[in-house]
Amino acid sequence: MSQKVRTRFAPSPTGYLHVGGVRTALFAWLVAKQAGGQFILRIEDTDRSRHVAESEQHIIDSLQWLGIEPNQKPVRQSQRLDIYKQWAQKLIETGRAYADTTSPDHLEAIRQKAKEAKRPFLFRDHRPDNPPAWDGSLPLRFKSEPKVYKWHDEVMGKLSAGPEAIDDFIIIKSDGYPTYNFAHIIDDHEMNISHVIRSQEFLPSVPKFLNLYEALQIERPKLATLPYVMGPDGQKKLSKRDGAKDILDYKRQGYLPKALVNFLATLGWNDGTEQEIFSVDELIEKFDLSRVQRSGARFDEQRLLWMNGHYIRQLSLDELSQKAEDFWPDSAKKADKPYKKVVLGLVQERLKYLAELAKLTKFFFAEPDMKNVLKLYKEPIDKQLQKNPPDYHAFLRAVIKELGASSFSAEDIKDCLNKLLESLDTKPAVLFPIIRIAITGSSVSPEIFGTLHVLGKEKSLHRLKNALQSLE
């Protein structure tokens, strides 16, 4: 086996790519990049009954969006069937594989018998005495030689298993396609893969794989087992119900790929410090499989939102404008770019993902819904307004009068409203929500001085007067 580091990501195209799968790909890519090696994408498409045609392109698009680029074109197992048959023939010739004549009904019967006897089912206890020569019409089964194994896992450390963990298993199905248990071992060997990095679900099968490596007389690569990504409660594996979304959903919602890569890299790994924000170059430099935690990593969507917000705030306005182009509300279509850019500058601090942009900015391009304005006055969300509802009429009249005399620079607006706080003997937590509701039709908005300034004097006064008139 070549000493050059070569890693692989080997998904089955049976559905969309989710957080756990992408994290596996990312860790394998980081190991290769750090060593100046190569990263391979292998599409393991031998389970034809579960194959989803569009899934392969989805996998490729997801990795490309995140910048996890393979060093060569994807390899497909379905195009390598002759290679697996050649290796299978070697096992037949050495007496380590046999045609399996067991019918599904008989297999179920002997499984049931073992269950009733309360002992583990092992197919090797039921091998046929005189199997026929394998002609490809029957499944081909590996003939195991059970023994004790001890091995080192790059993440889990020292592991071991007894002979009871090793059994005969199908390596070529009756449809001519190999099983995962067989094909991945052949591919890793032929592709000079140095590190096999995969999910915890494969850990119980490793003793079987070790037995097969020996039977094939090939050197095994380094093995690294990644614990599951756990749901938000940390109690069970992340599922669709807990938020295991299609990775490209994050793209559609306006997450930044660098933020998602940072989040996934620190999902069960850290460099031994308190650092949370890592550039891709820092991840490549610092990543180490030995620092991957052995227990499951809890998926915390709030942390992802915080991290994505951080990356949004680091963008220049020009960069953010470009990325935000498809996320504006429909009412912004006719607005000019300079105006949208100013609006974007106001909301940048608040944005956690770009799909929020439409909701946060719609009032900059369309009049607020007056029904909603009145509802927010009558049923206020702001706690200060709930406790002691002020005289909205008097407050709005005072605001209209004061702002009517303003030059409407952000600084002058600030001075005017601060004067009003004194003359009305009130607090920002009371006065500003009253203005915000009239101006935006919402209980949240960017800072009020900048919001009024960007909307302009005419629109702002018009909305304040509308709110007052509706109340009256």
**Span of the ends, CA to CA:** 83 Å
Gyration radius, to the nearest Å?
31 Å
| Beta content | 5-15%
Mean pLDDT metric = 95
Given as residue ranges, the uncertain stretches (5+ residues, pLDDT < 50) are none
Question: How would you name the oligomeric state of the polypeptide chains in this document?
Answer: single chain
Order of strands across the main sheet: 1-2-3
Task: Note the overall shape.
Answer: elongated
Number of helices: 20
Structural class: mainly alpha
Q: What is the count of β-strands?
A: 12
The helical percent reads 40-55%
The largest sheet is: 3 strands, parallel
Textual characterization of the structure:
The protein has 472 residues and is mainly alpha-helical. Helices cover 45% and strands 10% of the residues. It contains 20 helices and twelve strands. It has helices spanning 19-34, 55-66, 81-93, 104-116, 180-190, 206-216, 247-252, 257-265, 280-286, 301-314, 317-324, 337-347, 357-361, 370-378, 383-387, 392-404, 410-423, 428-440, 448-455, 457-471; strands spanning 6-9, 38-43, 75-76, 97-99, 140-142, 149-153, 157-161, 169-172, 195-199, 222-226, 229-230, 297-298. It has a three-stranded parallel sheet with strand order 1-2-3, with helices on one face. Strand 2 (38-43), helix 2 (55-66) and strand 3 form a beta-alpha-beta unit. The longest helix is centred in the first third of the chain and has 16 residues, at 19-34. It is elongated, with a radius of gyration of 31 Å. The protein starts with 5 loop residues before the first strand and ends with a helix. The mean pLDDT is 95.
